[in-house]
Design goal:
Layout (H helix, E strand, L loop, with lengths): L20 H18 L3 E2 L5 E3 H8 L4 H6 L1 E4 L5 E4 L4 H10 L9 E10 L11 E10 L4 H18 L4 E7 L5 H16 L5 H9 L10 H6 L12 H16 L5 E2 L11 E9 L7 E7 L3 H4 L7 E7 H10 L12 E5 L5 H13 L4 E3 L6 H10 L4 E5 L1 H6 L1 E6 L4 E6 L3 H14 L2
Parallel strand pairs: 1-5, 7-8, 12-13, 12-14
Antiparallel strand pairs: 2-4, 3-4, 5-6, 6-11, 7-9, 9-10, 10-11, 14-15, 15-16
Helix pairs in contact: 1-5, 5-9
The structure holds one RNA strand of 77 nucleotides.
Length: 431
RNA sequence: GUGGACGUAGCUCAGUUGGUUAGAGCGCCGGGUUGUGGCCCCGGAGGUCGGGGGUUCGAGUCCCCUCGUUCACCCCA
């Protein structure tokens, strides 16, 4: 295969997840799901494709995601479908479509799976990436904002992660945000001479975005820009204060950054991000916020909601960067090796018996010699090798070989299964 | 979409001012042990030097194009 240029490769920005990394990811997802379920969140799986309009309406026509990053296609029936670029809109759509409100409020749902955005890949950014996220739909209570925020924090703690910062902000509601944006716009007009071209464009199209310009000149020009905190209406201010208070009560450290902007249009009130050190330019591992008008925008009744989503690849980058290895790869319990002269059928019988007892077992499928089989067992990191040879079979025994200790002993076939169980229990107890 | 860096065996990389059979380590396969892994020794397989074009007597080495990877911008998980 190496003499020909490979014809097919994973599409740009996508990748294959192969063991042991696949097992590590599986482990992380299990812990994440456990943290969610611990808090009463239930799993929801929505389709990977949705009607294109769902995303246009919810995320916002002017956002980069909708304007240039969606994988959109027309199916044979002429319907415009899009590979989901994010998880919240589909969940809210499902909530409305399936009348989940009838099952009690709030509906606490979590999801897990691939998302698609057509961007230029770079560290921590892929065209197909994976998120685990949760939505609490139906409650305006700041307690639930704090709960949503706390989930990522709990997961990071479980994985032993450090070196991150939680940044929170409030972007107000449909009453106070527009007047703030107008105020900011007129401020930006005043300083437009000092802004870069990019920021001048942003001042027109999405004034809040000027805050994330990295150029020193722009940052200086924005020093005296009006802050949203002072412009929030009393209700929003109260909501934000309460949310922060609840975070304090939960013992979660955070920083309020009134200039933090998030990319989706549907956010209201609370927004937040967990940013990590040492991950390169894409350092937001988890983020989210409140979206109190989203349900109505999708044609449903006014329904408040809050949620977050967390990037699995970025989480994994952080885990690796910090040298953590919370989920080592799978280990095989038993390798059944056939020594020369042994009936391979008997080897198969033994392997099958072991597997039927719920103990993982593998054997040789390359018709190799014993030496090569031992090597294979070592490579599979087997806890134990059962050597089945002519001598053993004549005596009605098998040889047990402990690869870690380099010890071996004989066991009669009748005692094999119980000896096996004892051995495995022993190694597992000793670690 | 824009910019930079890089593309030599499965992996990590060497390859002198262009010089003619393209190397190493690791990995893989086999042997050294008539039935035994990890260490050691020996052998083997595996590369049209990303692809195409050009310059040259001669190009992995120079030039152009192209594809890919990667980092950054934009933006976001």
């Amino acid at each position: 295969m190496s003499d020909l240029a490979l014809k097919y490769k994973a599409p740009r920005g996508t990748s294959d997840l192969v063991y042991p990394e696949s097992e590590k990811v599986e482990g992380i997802l299990r812990v994440a799901a456990a943290e969610l379920e611990l808090r009463g969140y239930r799993r929801i799986s929505t389709p990977i494709i949705e009607n294109t309009d769902l995303f246009r309406r919810s995320i916002g026509e002017a956002t980069d995601i909708v304007a240039k990053e969606m994988y959109t296609f027309e199916d044979q029936g002429g319907e415009s479908l899009t590979l989901r670029p994010e998880g919240t809109a589909p969940v809210v759509r499902a909530y409305l479509e399936r009348s989940l409100h009838a099952r009690g409020l709030p509906q606490k749902l979590y999801y897990l799976g691939p998302m698609f955005r057509r961007e230029r890949p770079q560290a921590g950014r892929y065209r197909q990436f994976h998120q685990i996220g949760a939505e609490a739909i139906g409650s305006p209570d700041p307690f639930i904002d704090a709960e949503i925020i706390s989930i990522s924090e709990a997961l990071f703690a479980r994985l032993g992660l450090r070196g991150y910062e939680l940044v929170v902000n409030s972007v107000g509601c449909r009453e106070c945000r527009p007047s703030y944006v107008r105020m900011l716009s007129s401020f930006l007009e005043g300083v437009s001479q000092q802004l870069c071209d990019e920021c001048r464009r942003r001042s027109r199209e999405n004034p809040l975005r000027t805050f994330d310009c990295k150029k020193e000149s722009c940052r200086q020009a924005l020093e005296s820009a009006p802050a949203i905190g002072e412009q929030l209406c009393p209700a929003c201010r109260e909501h934000f204060t309460a949310t922060c208070g609840h975070l304090d009560r939960l013992g979660i450290r955070f920083r309020v950054d009134e200039r933090m902007v998030r990319g989706l249009d549907y956010y209201t009130n609370t927004t937040f991000e967990f940013q990590f050190e040492g991950l390169g330019a894409q350092n937001t591992v988890s983020g989210g916020g409140r979206y109190d008008y989203l349900a109505e925008q999708l044609g449903g009744p006014a329904t408040p909601g809050v949620g977050f989503s967390l990037g699995i690849e970025r989480l994994l980058m952080a885990v690796d960067a910090q040298g953590l290895d919370p989920f080592p790869g799978l280990r095989l319990d038993v390798f059944v090796a056939g020594a020369p002269g042994a009936d391979r059928g008997r080897v198969l019988d033994i392997m099958t018996a072991v597997r039927n007892a719920g103990i993982s077992a593998d054997s040789d499928f390359m018709e190799r010699g014993l030496k090569a089989q031992m090597k294979q067992a070592d490579r599979l990191d087997a806890r134990l090798v059962l050597i089945v040879g002519k001598d053993e079979l004549e005596r009605g025994e098998v040889t047990f070989r402990d690869l870690d200790q380099s010890r071996q002993w004989q066991v009669s076939l009748s005692m094999m299964m119980s000896e096996l169980r004892d051995f495995l229990e022993g190694v597992k107890r000793d670690g």
